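Z., the sequence and structure:
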Amino acid sequence: MTTLSSGFARARRWLRDHPLAFDATLAFCTLVAMICSSFTDPGDGHGPPAFGARTPELFSVLLMTLTAAALVLRRRRPMQVLAVTAALAAVEYVLMDPPAPVVMSTVIALYTVASRTDRPTTWRVGLLTMGGLTAAAMVFGSTPWYSQENFGVFAWTGLASAAGDAVRSRRAFVDAIRERAERAERTREEEARRRVAEERLRIARDLHDVVAHHIALVNVQAGVAAHVMDKRPDQAKEALAHVRDASRSALNELRMTVGLLRQQGDPEAPTEPAPGLAVLGELVTTFRNAGLPVEVACADRDRLPAAVDLAAYRVIQEALTNVRKHAGAGARAEVSVVRVGATAEVTVLDNGRGSAGRRPGTGPAGGTGAYGGGPGGPGDGDGQAGGGLDSGGHGLVGMRERVTALGGALTAGPRYGGGFRVHAILPVEARTGEPDRPGTAGGTGLRR
């Protein structure tokens, strides 16, 4: 029983996914039913119908075949199919006596129209079809006008209109319920996100108030301690104790608040320090081990602010990654970090000519693509020893955003005579939130 029901379910899904095949099957079944009914004589109403008591005419068989064939297109052109089947059914009533049941196709076509149009159209088309076919059967038939066969035509066409309208109404009702449910679901999700955002904003404001209060207290007490350190050390110790308590309280409240802001699935905070120029030697070693000769000239690497130090390290990391990936065999790289007044200049040069298919040259200067290919290079990953900003062709974009966020400028492009040059100018005092400066990611013929 289970196998049979699953087989019916699979057949139903297949027919629903192939509507033309379903309509062709329906048309064939309708043709068989019409031909079988044309061999049946209903009698005078006092006895059972007699099968084989009459034989349909060839013209009737032709009309039945035409109307059944028209049903194949009932979904694509419902009105035209109804017009064709109704006209052929009327011709059957006018010319043949007794008529063959060609009206079966008209009933199915009328149901299709009613299920796919609005109610006013259904009533107009249905009444016209019912009245026309019933009148043709009453006027041109050999039976009395009040015979049950004539009223049967009226009943069956009326039933098709009513059934199609009911199916259309139910389908519209189900679609409306589904749409409301989906809209309600979207509304709930948006409301939940809005509430979460409002709660996070409130927590952030509380965090600001708490931190600002404690930092102000620490600042005042530290000033008091510095003022009375020499003359009244006891009072200075008391002020420093207040500083310690206030800072501990601020840290505890900050930790609790950040814990509230964390979401499920957020990564754990890294425990290792952020990389910088102090570990530049380790980064260069990884590239040398990968077969890329690198020469380094770096001065004052430990005197840069933390944000500038990190940005310089990432620029070098990304530039060397691209040299390793795209500069070609035999390439060499030079790295320099120089302090010039209030800025630090980071320069990465190479003498490569580009890998085949990745750096199509238009002369000695090399490529015409966009700098930064996909992830790769020594230690490719989250930026600890390679890869870094170069992910999916956005290496230059990442370097530019990091540099311009500090108020610096970045240029990248081919060198005269071959190779590539990346040059970043970083202010020693990091500034955030400045707008991008035009031309900071300049360079023509950028390497891909």
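Residues 374 and 392 are 4 Å apart (CA to CA). The two ends are 63 Å apart (CA to CA).

Let me know what you think.
H.
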